[in-house]
Structure formats: structure tokens, C-alpha cells
Amino acid sequence: MKTFKAALASLALIAAGPLTAQDFSHEIADGPVPWNDKPFDAGEDRFMFAIHGDLTGGERPDVFEIAMAQINLLRPEFVINVGDLIEGGEVDRAQYLKQWDEYDRRVDTLRAPIFYVGGNHDLTNMLSKEIWAERLGPSYYHFLYKDVLFLVLDAEDNTPDRIAEISAARAEAVEIYKTEGREAFAKTEYNQMPERSSGTIGAEQAAYFRDVIATHANVRWTFVIVHKTVWERADESAFASIEAALSGRNYTVFNGHEHYYAYRQRHGQDHIQLATTSGEQFPDLGLSEDHVTFVTVSGEEVDIANLMLAGIRDRTGHIPLEGDDVCFATAECGENE
Length: 337
Prior knowledge:
By secondary structure, the protein is of the alpha/beta class. The protein has eleven helices and ten strands. It has three domains: about 1-40, no CATH class; about 45-155 and about 200-335, 4-Layer Sandwich (Purple Acid Phosphatase, chain A, domain 2); about 165-200, no CATH class. The chain has helices at about 5-15, 65-75, 95-105, 125-135, 160-180, 180-185, 190, 195, 205-215, 240-245, 330-335, and strands at about 45-50, 80, 140-145, 150, 220-225, 250-255, 260-265, 270-275, 290-300, 300-310. The strands form two sheets. A six-stranded mixed beta sheet has the order 3-4-5-6-8-7, with no helix packed on it. β1 (about 45-50), α2 and β2 form a beta-alpha-beta unit. α9 (about 205-215) packs parallel to α10 (about 240-245). About 35% of the residues are buried.
């Protein structure tokens, strides 16, 4: 006859949602068992997704390919990002297409699907916006997965006239950055524009997301993915209206753009800024290292883990794609010196 503890373990296994007694079996008939009575951490409502950070501003070789191989080792159900997927800039159509073909080729090595998010490098000017629409459709959208809502925002939602002004100022500033460095760049007209740091959410986009949020009022969790910290713009009202619509529910916001990691709370909700996944690093600003973020949703709980690329190794004990000697933190290997 089984002891009370063994019986309790059996009940726990049966109560663990879809992981029934048929999924786990043993041949210990009587007495204690060499495991505790915790239910298996599994369930139909449990899933994991990965997020990768910025590639741009001077992508470093080999890093992104290694990151894709490492993500495959960890088997998320899907992958998303925080934008700045191509270098972009003031280039012609052929160069844009070449850059997108290269990004698509590299993410095609993933075993899971990837969702695209636009950053300022991807949506620099009207030509880049046209190419995005041709290849990828809308620059802002939403989707549902296992009763969890994902809102993908476009922080480059400016009028055509303003896009032309920003694009011209950006082109001049980029040349100054290349020839005179970061200090000179910081003084440029472009760097003083509010769109440079915090971006823009238009009224039509805000109305779209308010409607989506109202339609999906009872989801388990909501994730907001946006390239820039639009909430930091002075007198911003469009994103504020999205925040107001989100009030009263659990949500998490992810952004990129600044190339260093930052954790904040706003309205009692986590706001997480990813660092890089091969983009240029700025260790003087904060934690600026290559990483991927893994998010696990289980029931009404969310766990977030940041995995540094330097620590993800395969079964042989090595970083995939012969990456043992690749630099993932320029502050440690001196690449920015």
C-alpha cells in the first residue's frame, strides 16, 4: 500500500494540467519516493518566446549568426525583436533590398517563426517605409498567442514632411559621427530632435491599439514591443492614451534603441530596454553587452531571463559556430578602444 506522501505525489501529478499520470510513470509500489510532490512545470497555457536586440550602428561580425544558433538550442516557440534590424540610412532601393535579404537569410536559420518590429534604421525615410510595406505589410500590428496579447508599435510614425526633415538631419549627423565622433554627434540638430530619442506614435495608430485593447479585455497578459521610449517624449498624448487603455491589466513593455540594458517600472509595470544582439555597444552608458531575452508565460505569471551570448554553449561546451573567441562585450575585449 502506498504511503500518504506517495499518494500525494500521484495526486499532484494528476493535478498538473495536461501532464497526466500517463505522461509520467514509475515502478515504486510502496514506501517513499525519491522526488518531491511538486507538480511538473508544464501546461497547455505555458510557452516561451525569445527577443533579440539591436543589430545596427556598426554591426559586429559573426555575433548575430551565433545568437540565432543559440536561440535554436533553447527552443522558444517564437522569436520577436525590438527593431533596428538593418543598417538602413540614406541608401537606394537596391541597397535596402540587399540588406533585408541578408537579414531574412540569417533569421531563416531559426527553427521558430520570427515577428518583425520596425526601428529608426528600418523606417528611416519614405523609401524605407515603402519597402517595409511591400515586404512585410503594416509597420504596427497585434497578434494573440495562447490568450496572450502582443502589441507591436511603430515609433517612427511621422508625417511625410516631418520624415523628410528628420531624414535630412539624420544624414548630416551620421557623417559628423563618422568623422568627428559621438561628442560632435550629440550637438547635431538631429540629436536634439525629440524623434531621435523617443520617437512618435500617431493618432491613427493610437486609436488602432485602443480598439485592440478594448476588444481583448480578458487576456492573460499583454506585451508591448516598441523600438523607442515613446513615453519619455514631452507632452506626448498618443502613447499616453494607449497606457490609459492598458490600465487595470498586467502588461510588460520591451524596447531597444539605446544599446544598453535598463529596467524601469512605470505605472507599476515592467519596462525593459534590451541592449544589443551584435549592434554597436556603449559600455559607458550602462550594461551594454550582447544578449537575448527569454520570456516564459505560465498561467497568469511571467518570468523574464536575460541570457548573455558569452554564456550560451552547446553540448560540446563551446559557443556555436566556433564562437569561443568572438567578442560579446566590447568593454571586456577592448573593441571600442
